[in-house]
C-alpha cells in the first residue's frame, strides 16, 4: 500500500457530511426557486409595471441571468476565503430580504430589476456549491454518489414554475405572492444555520498531507495561488473547455428543440406549442435521472475515470440532439418521446464528469474560484450558442445549420474529452510508478 492508499484508508469522514451535502442541494433548490418563480408571471408583471412583455422579459429575466454569470465570480472568491456554509447562509438571508421587499418597493420597473439583480447575487452560490462540498467532505468512493444526488436541485425549478403563480393568485398580487416565498426561505435559513453552527464540530479529515498531494494525483492541488493555477495548471483549461462546450450544446438544444417540434412542416415537426412543451419536458425529467446515474457510473463502472463519462456524454449529445431532425424520429410520437427522454438522460454526463474531474484536480481552497470561473465563462458561451443557433436559423430558414453547429460543438467536446482521458491515464501510470 502506497502513501496515498494509506492516507485514504486512515481517513474517517463524519456522518455530518450528509447534512452539509443536503445544505448545498437546498441552496441550489432555493436558487432555482427564486430565479424561476417570476417566469410564469411575466404576463401579469408587465402590465402592472406599465411596460411591454419584451421589456419585462429582458430586464427581469435576461438581466438576472447576466448578473448571475458575474455574481458567481464574487461568491467563488468568498467561498474560498470564508467557507461555503457561511456564504450559503448569507446568500439565503439576502434572498429573504429581497422577497420581503417586493410588497414595499416592487411597483416600478427599475426597482424590480434591481431586486432581480440582488436575486442573482443571492442565488449564484447555488451554482457552484456542490464542487467545494464534495471536494472537502466526501471520500473518493462516495464523490460520484454525492454529485449524483445533486439531481434533486432540479425540483427547485419545478417548484418555482408552480409555486410562483399559485402564491400570486392566492395573495391577490404578484408582489405579495413573491413575498410569501419568504416562508420557504426561512425554513432553509434555519437548516443552514444549524449546519453552519455545527460544522466545526464535525470537520472532515485531510485525505493526504500537502507533501503527498502531487504524488497521489499528479494534479494542481499543491498550488496555493489561484493565479498559479491559471498559469501552470493545464487541467483548469481542459475543464473550462469541456464545460463551455457542454453548455453551448445543451443550451442550444434546449432553445432549438421546442420550437422545431412546435413549428409546422416543412420547417418543423408540426406538433404545436402545447404538445411540443409536453414532449420537451421529457428531456427535463430524463436529465434528473441522468445526473444521479452518472455519478454512480463514475464510481462503480469507470472507477473514478471521469473522462470516459464526458466522452460518452458528447457522443450521445451528438446523436440524440441532432437525431430529432430525422423524420423517422420526430415523425412518430412514441419514438420521439423515448428519444427526448434519452437525450435528457445522457445530457448531464458531460457536466457531472467534468465536476468529478475538477474535484480530482483541485484542492478545496481554490475550488470556489475554479468552479466560479468555469461557470461564469461557460454561461456566456452557452448564451452565445443560443445566439449562434438563432442567427443560423434566421439566415438559412431551416434548422439544419443550427443543429449542425451543435454537432460541431459536440465533436470539439470529444476532442476535449480525449485530452481528459489521456491525462487520467498519465496520472494512473504515475501513481503506479510511485506505488512500485
Structural summary, described in words:
- This protein has 21 helices and no strands.
- The chain has 436 residues and is mainly alpha-helical.
- The chain folds into two domains: 200 residues, Growth Hormone, Chain: A; 226 residues, MFS general substrate transporter like domains (Growth Hormone, Chain: A, Up-down Bundle), CATH 1.20.1250.20.
- α8 packs across α19, α15 runs parallel beside α19 and α16 runs antiparallel to α21.
- It is globular and about 65 Å long.
- The N and C termini lie close together (10 Å).
- The N terminus and C terminus are likely disordered.
Topology overview:
Layout: H1 3-10, H2 17-36, H3 42-49, H4 53-82, H5 84-105, H6 109-123, H7 125-128, H8 130-137, H9 140-148, H10 154-171, H11 174-198, H12 210-217, H13 226-232, H14 234-262, H15 272-300, H16 306-323, H17 327-330, H18 333-346, H19 349-361, H20 364-396, H21 400-435
Helix pairs in contact: 2-5, 2-6, 2-8, 2-10, 2-11, 3-4, 4-5, 4-6, 4-20, 5-6, 5-11, 8-19, 8-20, 9-15, 10-11, 14-15, 14-16, 14-19, 14-20, 14-21, 15-18, 15-19, 16-18, 16-19, 16-21, 20-21
By CATH, the architecture of the largest domain is named Up-down Bundle
* Percent strand: under 5%
- The CATH H-level homologous superfamily of the largest domain: MFS general substrate transporter like domains
Q: Helix count, per DSSP? A: 21
Amino acid at each position: 500500500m502506497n502513501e496515498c492508499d494509506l492516507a485514504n484508508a486512515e481517513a474517517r469522514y463524519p456522518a455530518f457530511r450528509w447534512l452539509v451535502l443536503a445544505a448545498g442541494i437546498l441552496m441550489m433548490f432555493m436558487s432555482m426557486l427564486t430565479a424561476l418563480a417570476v417566469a410564469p408571471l411575466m404576463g401579469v408583471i408587465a402590465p402592472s409595471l406599465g411596460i411591454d412583455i419584451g421589456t419585462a422579459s429582458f430586464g427581469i429575466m435576461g438581466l438576472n441571468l447576466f448578473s448571475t454569470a458575474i455574481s458567481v465570480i464574487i461568491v467563488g472568491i468568498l467561498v474560498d476565503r470564508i467557507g461555503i456554509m457561511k456564504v450559503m447562509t448569507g446568500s439565503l438571508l439576502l434572498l429573504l430580504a429581497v422577497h420581503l421587499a417586493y410588497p414595499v418597493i416592487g411597483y416600478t420597473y427599475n426597482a424590480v430589476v434591481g431586486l432581480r439583480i440582488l436575486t442573482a447575487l443571492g442565488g449564484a452560490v447555488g451554482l457552484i456549491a456542490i464542487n467545494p462540498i464534495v471536494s472537502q467532505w466526501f471520500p473518493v468512493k462516495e464523490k460520484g454518489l454525492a454529485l449524483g444526488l445533486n439531481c434533486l436541485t432540479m425540483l427547485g425549478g419545478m417548484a418555482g414554475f408552480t409555486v410562483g403563480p399559485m402564491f400570486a393568485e392566492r395573495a391577490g398580487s404578484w408582489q405579495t405572492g413573491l413575498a410569501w416565498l419568504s416562508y420557504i426561505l426561512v425554513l432553509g435559513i434555519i437548516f443552514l444555520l444549524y449546519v453552519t453552527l455545527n460544522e466545526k464540530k464535525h470537520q472532515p479529515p485531510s485525505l493526504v498531507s500537502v507533501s503527498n498531494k502531487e504524488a497521489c494525483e499528479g494534479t494542481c492541488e499543491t498550488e496555493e495561488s489561484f493565479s498559479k493555477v491559471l498559469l501552470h495548471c493545464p487541467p483548469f483549461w481542459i475543464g473550462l473547455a469541456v464545460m463551455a462546450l457542454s453548455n453551448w450544446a445543451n443550451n442550444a438544444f434546449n432553445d432549438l428543440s421546442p420550437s422545431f417540434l412546435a413549428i409546422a412542416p416543412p420547417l418543423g415537426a408540426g406538433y404545436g406549442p402545447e404538445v411540443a412543451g409536453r414532449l420537451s419536458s421529457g428531456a427535463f425529467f430524463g436529465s434528473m435521472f441522468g445526473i444521479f446515474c452518472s455519478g454512480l457510473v463514475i464510481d462503480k463502472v469507470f472507477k473514478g475515470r471521469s473522462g470516459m463519462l464526458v466522452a460518452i456524454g458528447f457522443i450521445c449529445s451528438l446523436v440524440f440532439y441532432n437525431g430529432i431532425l430525422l423524420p423517422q424520429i420526430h415523425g412518430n410520437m412514441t419514438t420521439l418521446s423515448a428519444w427526448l427522454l434519452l437525450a435528457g438522460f445522457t445530457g448531464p454526463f458531460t457536466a457531472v464528469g467534468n465536476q468529478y474531474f475538477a474535484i480530482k484536480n483541485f484542492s478545496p481552497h481554490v475550488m470556489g474560484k475554479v468552479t466560479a470561473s468555469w461557470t461564469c465563462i461557460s454561461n456566456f458561451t452557452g448564451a452565445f450558442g443560443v445566439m449562434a443557433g438563432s442567427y443560423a436559423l434566421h439566415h438559412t430558414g431551416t434548422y439544419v445549420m443550427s443543429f449542425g453547429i451543435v454537432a460541431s460543438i459536440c465533436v470539439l467536446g470529444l476532442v476535449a474529452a480525449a485530452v481528459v482521458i489521456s491525462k487520467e491515464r498519465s496520472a494512473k501510470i504515475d501513481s503506479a510508478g510511485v506505488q512500485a
